[in-house]
Amino acid sequence: MSRKTGSLELLDMDPNHFGKENYRSETKSLNLGKGQDSANWGKTSPSKSYCSSSSTSTENVVSTLERKKAQAASESGTLNRPDDLPLLPGEKVTGQARDVTYLCPYQGPARGMLTVTNYKLYFRSADKDSNIIEVPLGVVSRIEKVGGASSRGENAYGIEIFCKDMRNLRFAHKQENHSRRTVFEKLQRFAFPLSCKLKLFAFENQEVFSENGWAVYEPIAELKRMGVNNDMWKITKINEHYTICDSYPAVWAIPAQTKDEDIQVVCSFRSRGRLPVLSWIHPESQATVTRCAQPLVGVSGKRCREDEHYIQLIMDANAQSHKMIIMDARPTANAIANKAKGGGYESEDAYQHAELVFLDIHNIHVMRESLRKLKELCYPNIEETKWLSGVESTYWLKHIKCILAGAVRIVDKVENHKTSVLVHCSDGWDRTAQLTALSMLLLDPYYRTIRGFEVLIEKEWLSFGHKFQQRVGHGDEHHSDADRSPVFLQFIDCVWQTTQQFPNAFEFNEHFLITILDHLYSCRFGTFLFNSERERAVEKIKDNTVSLWSYTNSNLDLYRNPLYWANAKQERVLVPIASIRHIKLWKAYYCRWNPSMRTQDPVYQRICELLKLKDQLENTAQEYRKEQQQRMTRSNVSPT
Asked: Residue 281 belongs to what H/E stretch?
């Protein structure tokens, strides 16, 4: 099947356009009743015009290509829509407002037409440069009306849109046009469809691609790639109907000696029924990375004989070591506090030959607040004199360092000490996923390929029940929900940090990581929807939506790293330096909407040239090898 053309990439916005978003509702809001405050809202800073009309940064690569397709279709007369609005298959216009002013904090006001579809917000200015702003409604966190009937002053009456990806939008409406109410209602309806009893756009999307992304991950095939089944580990479908643990996948790998009747008991002793199961096994030493949730020991220090025996079986499955490391992702104080709620951690007295280590990674609420501070720092204006101290005060880089350091400790135990590691936090679906996925990325070169990384996300994040719906809030208007948190974003940030230290160890480039994050929010694809594999099976996500991997794997050249070097001599295990001296702020993501921070080089063009040059050099090297082989053959045949 060939891909349908004429679509415009979801996130191709001129990165000149967005203001500061406060992640929580408690933060300072605009005073809608005072004309003076409303007038201040309408003011912009045209003197700070850092931005150019075109962007050459990698985050706009796909959108640039798709815009060219849309323009070509428009010129040939195949687009018959208002203002040649490019639509995805299944996308429909739901409302339009003319004479709307976009308030850019850099270039000043721009007047034009605002269109709302069931997928995106689309603004086209009326000036000759025809600036286009486009944002998927899945990215919207909240929408607020600004100004009222008594508001005075230019651009004092309108709408402010707060986004999940480090940017804001501000639009001013003329009161006499009565357009604000219509736009506001349409935005509320299609940005938060679940709150309005509607389907997410992913269920309306009719795009067709040459690749089937749903076939990327097959759990039994992935376990067999790692050498399971074997003498010590077996594949089980005991959870095939999700009755043992509803947040775990249908297929597990567990110690071969485990009895089915013990599984139920162990599940009852672990939070949410999330018992220890295999994530990764070392191909030589058989040391393993396993994952689970906290034990339900409580303040009385309960014990479970079956759980202790089960942990011993995991330990015995590794003949290279007679001990196990239990990595508890939480700070010690948090783990102790969980005892009062019935949770806790393993006692080294109860679990013989097990060593307990706390990794001091903070909870989802701390991380949410840290990202909120980072967003305030990065947009709309960056204070040069306080930039470094401002970054430090967010603690974001410190949190990234702690997560990366935890993964490095796991790698050290498995690779150098040949010791199995059990990882958990409280429920085993946030910090645990960060640590297992990162450590597997560092241990196994397969996960550093494009398809391997897709498998890693499918396996450790999606199948093992990271609650994407709750953490991201797809289609939900409750922006201040305490369950929202940037857990997956931190994982991708840690991956990016590793690519900076090992630039030729990864097949994928930075644009691939940004594309994944963009579609984490967009609701264009079904990949990140819902909280568990069971929920996706009930919603028949594979039948009713398109996979993100269908999109990426149909455009692989966009995401290839020209510096990638895949050969037998390459380092199999990566050990990044988890020091604050080496951890950097990912400006290409967090600051990409601020034109003063945006790269000015034509990165995509350079990557294409490097990929072509790399292919030419590899072909030339192959020809020389053949020629050398032929010479050696001739010299062996001919007399001395």
From this structure: strand 277-281
Q: Is residue 252 a known part of a binding site?
A: no
Amino acid identity, position 539: E
For the ranges 315-324, 440-449, 533-542, 629-638, the lowest mean pLDDT is seen at: 629-638
Q: Give CA–CA dist 225/222, Å, rounded.
A: 5
CA dist 421 and 549 (Å) reads 31
| Cβ 440 vs Cβ 289: under 8 Å | yes
What single-letter amino acid sits at 48? K
Distances (CA, A) of 19 to 143, 193, 382, 614: 13, 25, 11, 41
Answer yes or no: are the C-beta atoms of 322 and 295 closer than 8 Å: no
Asked if pLDDT for residue 33 goes beyond 50, the answer is no
Phi/psi-derived region of residue 157, left when phi > 0, alpha when psi is between -120 and 50, beta in every other case = beta
364 is in an annotated binding site: yes
Q: What is the pLDDT of residues 155-212, one digit of tens each?
A: 889 999 999 999 999 999 988 878 899 999 999 999 999 999 999 999 999 999 999 9
Q: With 50 as the cut, is the pLDDT of residue 393 above it?
A: yes
Residue range 101-146, pLDDT digits in tens: 999 888 889 999 999 999 999 999 988 677 889 999 999 999 999 9
**Which CATH number among 1.10.1040.10, 1.10.3720.10, 3.40.190.10, 2.30.29.30 corresponds to the domain 85-198?**
2.30.29.30
168, 379 in Cβ contact below 8 A?
Answer: yes
> Was 199 annotated as part of a binding site?
no
- Residue type for position 42: G
Of 245, 378, 402, 425, the catalytic one is 425
Query: DSSP string covering 413-465, please?
Result: IIIIS--EEEEE-SSSSSHHHHHHHHHHHHH-GGGGSHHHHHHHIIIIIIITT
* Residue 429 annotated as binding site: yes
Instruction: Name the residue with tokens 């099976």.
Output: 537
Backbone angles phi, psi at 106, to 5 degrees: -120, -50
Q: pLDDT confidence of 390, banded at 50, 70, 90?
A: very high
What is the percentage of the chain residues whose pLDDT exceeds 70? 85
Separation of CA 214 from chain center = 18
Residue 127 CA, distance from chain mean position:
36
Residue type, 397: L
Q: Show the CA angle centred on residue 462, arms to residues 458 and 466, nearest 5°.
A: 145
Whether the predicted pLDDT of 455 surpasses 50: yes
Structure tokens at 623: 């020809």
How far apart are alpha carbons 630 and 610 in whole angstroms? 30
Long-range contacts of 129-134 (CB under 8 A, 24+ apart): 129/53, 131/14, 131/53, 131/102, 131/107, 132/12, 132/13, 132/14, 133/13, 133/14, 133/17, 133/102, 133/169, 134/8, 134/10, 134/11, 134/12, 134/13, 134/63
* pLDDT confidence of residue 604: 66
Q: What global pTM score does this model have?
A: 0.86
425 is catalytic: yes
Helix axes 431-443, 487-501, angle to 10 degrees: 20
Least confident of 74-83, 84-93, 259-268, 345-354: 74-83
Residue 135: its H or E element: strand 132-136
Is residue 18's pLDDT more than 60? no
Residue at token pair 């500061």: 20
Tell whether residue 557 is among the known ligand binding residues: no
